């Protein structure tokens, strides 16, 4: 019964208020992210047998064994993946399918959604430069500006973009496709209308991957390949590279992993040097279909870049797949140092003036939502410098005017604006004050970013002839002093579930301007790891062009060891941001191409304290022509305290980052290496002492080698200073979750508007059965839900949130004597029947997009169709600890629910 039940995706807004029964129903219906009965089957690829024969044998066997019949969705005959995707008419035939000889893995087919925009704006018209040449700021951040100056732009390198297609008719993307064009080819696997949730909707593949409806892939393509010399002075990182567009997202914008697998294998077989994928789902396991296939493509010497995911607000260790694939380059996001601001124009010759709409409820960075026609502008005093304009109520009708208003140091800007309300001005333009916000219901108000712009407007307005306009599509780049250059809040945290070093590194992904389908506006600004990912694909193309294609094998290490630390804030003495979010740092292509020193490994995986690998050797190789002396030192990043006192992961904005470094010792602090020679250094790392190990602190940082010829190269480390296996896996104590009066797990009757928890025994009739809800505090390979007799003596090993008494003794239940031999089967206990089973889950989080808590309907029937007999029951929830042994009872958390009677009625 893999994936037979719903995974509910709870968004932040629903978590905070009382949760409606109708919403819960909707979530259960919508959120099932697997296709019932659909599976990807991997067959052993024994060289003795051609894939075609293996497929025929398998299909013959399945025909004999699957009583309910089946259809074939896909056939994979790649040297990287031999198998099929099948649709069973009866999901229960899975047991027979799994027993077919030659089957090495069966995985449910999962739905992947195209990433949602984070702060998307459609642009038009050019804007004014301000400091760093407009459009080039991301390259300035990564040293790509220097590489472009040297004449490299990725010529001769082939990059596959697996996404929503590309609008190749865009003038900055070549204005056409096919041989000789930037977009040299591609394939559309889905067509415009494919909707993976609708069983009647079938993919309509063809050879044309043009994106005219969704935009995401066009934006990605521009990050890599936009030709210089356009309105926004943007240039792609590798604008001379050849791009192949594989379209996997229709206009409906979701797809399935059997299609994504096919796209990856095709990109591989069609000779892509680099494959870039800006999609994913919260998962974090290296064993999911896409993680496995992506990792195999990388193992064959192709560069595979994958977006880390936009789940950063959900807290630490909430990574996504396929970014969790072992050999891929998972890319996190750093905010652009420039952000776009709307601008206003005046009737006097002057550069467009950037401003901010101060209405709290409107989206940041948008123009004032008023007409584009010119408004006459005036000031409220004969003296433009007056310090008490609008300090008293104004009743004159100002509706035809834009009021240029110097913020008053005497009465304060909020008093001034309140005084202007009765006058109903067409717009207010405020200057000479700190940033502020207004609740809704005030006249439209623009706050000028620069005081000088305000002084200019005020003196012109004093002359009596000034008009101003607020164009709806006119933006300017201004330096972002608050978070420019910092890790984007949305960028997902690693490490991955098996504690791999994730993300690998980061690149600019917040506030990125790029190409957009011509029919939808041509240019847009958007944010996401979706855009940092192709940035690294482009950077890799520059490296391959300069160093040759053999450099692909070592690409991740090269970019990691030459990246730059990302600070945790803009304060001067700020420690570096956790590598669990920034990876090894912000890539620097100039360093990568100029360093004459290599370090290996580039990352030290410390694991957790139960499997701590604290002592490791690193090798420093001097590839230059002169001897170099290296000074070695340790730079710790902030440590993330993963859990709160209830054992649940912290989430944004409360994620705890503390100055509590790991202990690091090096057996030498300085070493001289001859030209072409190498030296080995022993690094010994101990978990941090200043944080409680039970809170699972994530430690990270770098060992840096600073060479006498100017090279700076780094080895990054990451690990968990506590034992994951000992951590409680079923979440309890999360009492702000889901309903008014308590936390999960709980039986949730569905008879009132608001979701609430059943307390004490309760009877239900067959038509009105409840839902069971729970959340995981830790990732788990295996979770089961069974029906047991109400008189069963099994008891919970985790505290019951419904009981006011403090925690019961954990793991008191002894299953000895009942244990089976088979791996990853929940120890059998006397149950009435199985209800649900989940594999390879991530931990939940109360906050954040795409973060699961889980639900199961109390069933009226068992899987075999038998009606659940009338009687008194409880639900038994069991979850295997991460890294736990399925055969060890103490490695399972147990929760026993309130008593549920099923009665006639
Ligand atoms: C446009 O970008 C180029 C680099 O590609 C830069 O040299 C130039 O100054 C920029 N132009 C403007 C107007 O910012
Ligand atoms: C910049 O990016 C951040 C994060 O995505 C977003 O919140 C902000 O609104 C963006 N700012 C602009 C001006 O686009
Ligand atoms: C910088 O970006 C952040 C969000 O990404 C935003 O809150 C802030 O207002 C921006 N600052 C400027 C000066 O644009
Ligand atoms: C960490 O240790 C566990 C348990 O031995 C292992 O399964 C896992 O692969 C290790 N992770 C890494 C990155 O080595
Ligand atoms: C440091 O450790 C490395 C690796 O164990 C070893 O090869 C090297 O000789 C050691 N150096 C010194 C000075 O002890
Ligand atoms: C549930 O129904 C049973 C049988 O009808 C009855 O004995 C029991 O008292 C009922 N329990 C509750 C909590 O109403
Ligand atoms: C639970 O009941 C079974 C018999 O149904 C008994 O063998 C077992 O010892 C009991 N376990 C506990 C912990 O009381
Ligand atoms: C159906 O499944 C239930 C629960 O596992 C079991 O008790 C019952 O005997 C089964 N019925 C048949 C006809 O197999």
Give your account of this protein's structure.
The protein is of the alpha+beta class. Helix content is 15%, strand content 29%. It is built from 15 helices and 46 strands. The strands form nine sheets. It has a seven-stranded parallel sheet with strand order 8-9-7-11-13-15-24, sandwiched between helices. A seven-stranded mixed barrel has the order 16-17-21-20-19-18-22. Strands 28, 30, 31, 32, 34, 36 and 37 form a seven-stranded mixed sheet that branches. Strand 8 (183-188), helix 7 and strand 9 form a beta-alpha-beta unit. Helix 7 (216-225) runs parallel beside helix 12 and helix 8 (257-269) runs parallel beside helix 9. The protein starts with 6 loop residues before the first strand and ends with a strand. Residues 1-17 and 804-823 have low confidence and may be disordered.
Could you outline the blueprint of secondary structure elements for this entry?
Blueprint: E1 7-10, H1 12-16, H2 21-30, E2 34-43, H3 51-65, E3 70-77, E4 82-88, H4 94-98, E5 103-113, E6 121-123, H5 137-142, H6 144-149, E7 158-163, E8 183-188, H7 216-225, E9 242-247, E10 254-256, H8 257-269, E11 274-277, E12 281-282, H9 289-299, E13 303-307, E14 320-321, E15 329-335, E16 338-346, E17 353-357, E18 375-378, E19 402-406, H10 413-420, E20 427-431, E21 445-448, H11 451-463, E22 467-469, E23 475-479, E24 505-510, E25 512-515, E26 523-526, H12 529-547, H13 555-561, H14 579-582, H15 589-594, E27 597-600, E28 603-608, E29 615-622, E30 628-636, E31 639-641, E32 656-658, E33 663-666, E34 670-673, E35 678-686, E36 697-707, E37 712-720, E38 746-748, E39 762-765, E40 771-774, E41 780-789, E42 833-841, E43 851-857, E44 871-880, E45 892-896, E46 900-903
Parallel strand pairs: 7-9, 7-11, 8-9, 11-13, 13-15, 15-24, 18-19, 19-20, 20-21, 28-37, 39-46
Antiparallel strand pairs: 1-43, 2-4, 2-5, 3-4, 5-10, 6-26, 12-14, 16-17, 16-22, 16-23, 17-21, 18-22, 25-26, 27-29, 29-35, 30-34, 30-36, 31-32, 31-36, 33-35, 36-37, 38-40, 40-43, 41-42, 41-44, 44-45, 44-46
The structure holds 2-acetamido-2-deoxy-beta-D-glucopyranose (8 copies).
Residues 335, 339, 478, 480-483, 510 line the site of one 2-acetamido-2-deoxy-beta-D-glucopyranose.
């Amino acid at each position: 019964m893999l994936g037979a039940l719903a995974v509910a995706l709870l968004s932040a807004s629903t978590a905070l208020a009382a949760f409606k029964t109708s919403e819960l129903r909707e979530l259960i219906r919508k959120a099932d992210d697997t296709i019932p009965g659909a599976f990807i089957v991997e067959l052993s690829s024994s060289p003795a047998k051609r894939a075609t024969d293996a497929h025929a044998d398998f299909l013959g066997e399945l025909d004999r064994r699957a009583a309910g019949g089946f259809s074939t969705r896909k056939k994979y005959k790649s040297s990287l993946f031999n198998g099929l995707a099948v649709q069973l008419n009866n999901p229960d035939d899975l047991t027979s399918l799994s027993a077919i000889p030659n089957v090495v893995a069966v995985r449910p087919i999962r739905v992947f959604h195209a990433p949602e925009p984070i702060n998307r704006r459609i642009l038009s018209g050019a804007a004014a430069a301000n400091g760093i040449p407009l459009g080039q700021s991301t390259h300035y951040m990564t040293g790509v500006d220097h590489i472009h100056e040297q004449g490299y732009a990725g010529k001769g390198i082939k990059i596959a973009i697996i996404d929503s297609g590309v609008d190749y008719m865009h003038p900055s993307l070549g204005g056409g496709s096919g041989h000789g064009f930037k977009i040299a080819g591609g394939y559309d696997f889905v067509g415009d209308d494919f909707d993976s949730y609708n069983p009647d909707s079938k993919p309509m593949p063809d050879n044309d991957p043009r994106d005219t409806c969704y935009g995401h892939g066009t934006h990605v393509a521009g990050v890599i390949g936009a030709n210089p010399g356009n309105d926004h002075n943007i240039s792609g990182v590798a604008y001379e590279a050849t791009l192949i567009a594989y379209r996997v997202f229709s206009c409906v914008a979701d797809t399935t992993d059997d299609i994504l697998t096919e796209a990856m294998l095709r990109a591989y077989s069609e000779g892509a040097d680099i494959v870039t994928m800006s999609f994913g789902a919260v998962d974090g396991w290296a064993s999911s279909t896409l993680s496995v296939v992506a990792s195999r493509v990388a193992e064959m010497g192709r560069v595979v870049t994958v977006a880390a995911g936009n789940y950063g607000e959900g807290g630490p260790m909430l990574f996504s797949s396929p970014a969790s694939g072992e050999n891929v380059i998972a890319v996190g996001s750093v905010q652009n140092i420039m952000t776009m601001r709307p601008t206003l124009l005046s009737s006097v010759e002057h550069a467009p003036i950037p401003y901010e709409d101060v209405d709290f409820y409107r989206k940041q960075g948008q123009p004032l939502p008023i007409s584009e026609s010119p408004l006459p502008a005036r000031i409220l005093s004969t003296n433009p410098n007056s310090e008490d304009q609008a300090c008293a109520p104004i009743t004159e009708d100002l509706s035809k005017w834009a009021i240029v208003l110097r913020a008053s140091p005497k009465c304060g800007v909020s008093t001034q604006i309140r005084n202007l309300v009765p006058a109903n001005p067409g717009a207010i333009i405020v200057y000479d004050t700190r940033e502020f916000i207004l609740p809704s219901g005030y006249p439209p108000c623009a706050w000028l970013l620069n005081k000088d712009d305000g002084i200019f407007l005020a003196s012109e307005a004093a002359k009596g002839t000034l008009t101003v306009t607020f164009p709806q599509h006119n933006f300017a780049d201004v330096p972002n002093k608050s978070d420019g250059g910092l890790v984007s809040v949305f960028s997902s945290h690693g490490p991955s579930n098996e504690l791999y070093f994730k993300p690998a590194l980061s690149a600019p992904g917040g506030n990125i301007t790029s190409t957009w389908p011509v029919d939808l506006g041509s240019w847009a600004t958007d944010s996401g790891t979706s855009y940092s990912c192709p940035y690294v694909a482009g950077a890799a193309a520059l490296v391959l062009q300069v160093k040759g294609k053999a450099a692909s094998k070592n690409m991740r290490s090269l970019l990691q060891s030459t990246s730059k630390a990302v600070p945790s804030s803009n304060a001067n003495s700020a420690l570096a941001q956790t590598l669990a979010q920034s990876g090894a740092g912000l890539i620097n292509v100039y360093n990568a191409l100029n360093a004459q020193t290599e370090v290996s490994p580039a990352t030290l995986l410390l694991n957790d304290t139960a499997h701590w690998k604290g002592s490791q050797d690193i090798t420093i190789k001097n590839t230059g022509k002169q001897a170099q002396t290296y000074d070695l030192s340790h730079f710790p990043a902030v440590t993330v305290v993963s859990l709160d006192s209830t054992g649940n992961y912290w989430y944004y904005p409360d994620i705890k980052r503390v100055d509590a470094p790991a202990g690091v010792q090096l057996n030498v602090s300085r070493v001289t290496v001859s030209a072409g020679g190498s030296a080995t250094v022993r690094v010994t790392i101990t978990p941090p002492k200043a944080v409680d190990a039970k809170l699972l602190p994530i430690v990270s940082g770098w060992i840096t080698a600073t060479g006498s010829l100017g090279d700076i190269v780094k080895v990054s480390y990451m690990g968990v200073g506590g034992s994951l296996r000992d951590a409680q896996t079923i979440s309890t104590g999360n009492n702000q979750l889901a309903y008014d009066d308590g936390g999960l797990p709980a039986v949730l009757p569905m008879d009132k508007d608001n979701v609430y928890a059943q307390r004490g025994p309760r009877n239900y009739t067959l038509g009105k059965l409840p839902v069971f809800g729970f959340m995981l505090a830790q990732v788990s390979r295996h979770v089961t839900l069974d029906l047991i007799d109400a008189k069963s003596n099994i008891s919970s090993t985790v505290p019951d949130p419904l009981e006011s008494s403090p925690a019961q003794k954990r793991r008191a239940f002894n299953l000895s004597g009942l244990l089976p031999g088979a791996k990853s089967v929940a120890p059998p206990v006397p149950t009435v029947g199985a209800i649900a089973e989940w594999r390879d889950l991530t931990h939940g989080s109360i906050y954040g997009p795409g973060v699961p808590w889980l639900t199961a309907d109390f069933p009226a029937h068992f899987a075999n169709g038998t009606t659940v007999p009338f009687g008194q029951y409880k639900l038994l929830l069991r979850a295997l600890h991460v890294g736990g042994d399925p055969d060890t009872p103490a490695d399972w958390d147990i929760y026993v629910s309130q008593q549920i009677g099923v009665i006639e009625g």
